[in-house]
Amino acid sequence: MPSLPFDEMTRPDGGIRAPYLTYDAWMARTSIDTLRQKHTQADLLFKRIGITFAVYGDSQGSERLIPFDVVPRIISADEWDYVARGVCQRVMALNRFIHDVYHEQEILRAGKVPRALVENNDQFRAEMVGFEPPGGVYVHIAGVDIVRTGENEFHVLEDNLRTPSGVSYMMENRDMMMRLFPDLFDRYSVAPVNHYPQELLKTLKYVAPSPVGSPTVVLLTPGQYNSAYFEHAFLADEMGVELVQGQDLFVDDGFVYMRTVEGPQRVDVIYRRIDDDFLDPQAFRKDSMLGVPGLFEAYRKGTVTLANAIGTGISDDKAVYDYVPAMIEFYLGEKAILRNVPTYHLDDDDDRKYVLEHLDELVVKEVHGSGGYGMLVGPKASRTEIAAYKDRILANPGNFIAQPTLALSTCPTFVNEGLAPRHVDLRPYVLTGKTTNVVPGGLTRVALKEGSLVVNSSQGGGTKDTWVLER
Length: 471
Fold this sequence. Notes:
Elements: H1 21-28, H2 32-49, E1 52-54, E2 63-65, E3 73-75, H3 77-101, H4 106-109, H5 115-119, E4 141-150, E5 153-160, H6 167-180, H7 182-187, H8 196-206, E6 217-220, H9 229-239, E7 242-244, E8 249-252, E9 255-258, E10 265-266, E11 269-272, H10 295-301, E12 305-307, H11 324-332, E13 339-340, E14 344-345, H12 349-357, E15 362-366, E16 376-377, H13 383-395, E17 400-404, E18 410-415, E19 418-427, E20 429-432, E21 436-438, E22 443-447, E23 461-464, E24 466-468
Parallel strand pairs: 3-24, 5-13, 6-7, 6-11, 11-12
Antiparallel strand pairs: 1-2, 4-5, 4-20, 8-9, 9-10, 14-17, 15-16, 15-17, 18-19, 19-22, 20-21, 22-23
Helix pairs in contact: 3-11
Pfam family, one: CP_ATPgrasp_2
Protein name: Circularly permuted ATP-grasp type 2 domain-containing protein
C-alpha cells in the first residue's frame, strides 16, 4: 500500500507542525462559514480588480477568474533558507551554462552535457554565439518549480527561464489575505513580498547598457489577448514603467526608441514578455506582428538590453534540466542543494524501453511543453490515453522525457466540505543583476481536484498565499 503524501500542517500522529501551530489555534475559534464568506469575498474582489487569465481553446470563454484558496501555505524560516539557497545556486549555474554554450563550450568538451542535446535543440540560438549581454547576465528573471516530498525534502521539477509568469498572483494573493485576515497577520511575522517590483526594477536598471545615467525601462507585451496580460500591466504599473507593444517601439541608427506624445524617447532596457521567435521579424519569424523590426541588431550592438536574453530557452528545456546538478558542480564547485527528479530520456534506447513498459506508473512530458499541456500522468490515465500517448512517443522519442510520479506534499485547502488536503508546488522568483537573490515566498499552486497532481491554473488548479516566517 503506498504511503500517504507528506502533509505540511499535520504529522502522521495527528500533531501540528510548528509553522501551523498558531493557524491551528486560530482555526479552532473560526467557523467554516467564516472561511466560506471570506472565499466569496475574495472571488468578488478579484472579479472587481479584473484578475483573470486566458485559457486558449477553452470553449467556455477565454477569460477565467484566478482560482484562489483562503488557507495560506506556511513555511518556516529555516525551510525557506534551504530553498532560497538552492534556487539561487541553481540560477547562478544556469547563467554560467548559457554563457558557456554560446562561447567556449567547456562543459560540452568535458562531456558533462551531451553536445547534441544543445546543438540540435530548437531553443539553441546560433545568432547568440560570441555575444556578451550587458552585465554578462542571461537569465534576469527565473521561476523555479519546486515540490516537497517530506521533511527537508525538496525537489526541482523544472526551470522557467524564458518568460516566467505568475509573480503578480503572488503579490495579489498577499494583498487579498492581508485584507481578509488582518487578525492572522497580527499573530504571525510574515516576510513581505510587495517589494518585488522595486527589486525587479533595480535588477533591470543594473543591466542597462553602459554608460546610462538614468536608464529607461519598458515592459514589452504581446497585447491584451495574451494569457498573462494582466500580469504585464500589473508589473509595469508597479514598477512605474511604460507598458508597450511592438508598434510602440522603433529602431533608428542602431538605437531603440519609444513613441510618445512628446516625441521619440530612447529605450535602454526591455523586459520582454514575448518569445524569441516573435521579437524581430527581420531576424526571426518574418510573419511576426508582435515584435520590433531591427531590435535584434540593436541588441547585438549593445545599445539595448533584453531581459531575459535571447537564447535562454536552451536551459529550460526539460531534457537539459537533468544535467543542472552537473552544471552546479562544474561551474560552482558545489553539490546541488536541491535535488532533481530522476529523469528518463526517451531518445535513449534503454530509457525508452523501460518507460514504454511502465507508462502507467510515470509522468511523461514534452521537452518544450508548459502549462500542464501535452503531458501524461500515468497513474491517472486510462488505457486508451496511455496507448495514444505511446504512439506519440514512438513517432518522436526525443520530444519527451519521463519521471517517477512524486507524492507531492499536501496543504489544508478550503473546499465545499471544509478543509481538506490538496497537493501543492511552489514557484519562487529569482532575480539576477548585480547579485542573485529571491523574494521570500513565491507562487504556491494547488491542485483543487481531489487526488489530482496537476496544479496549473489552466488545468483546474488554483493558488495560495505563501507565508515565509521571519522567525
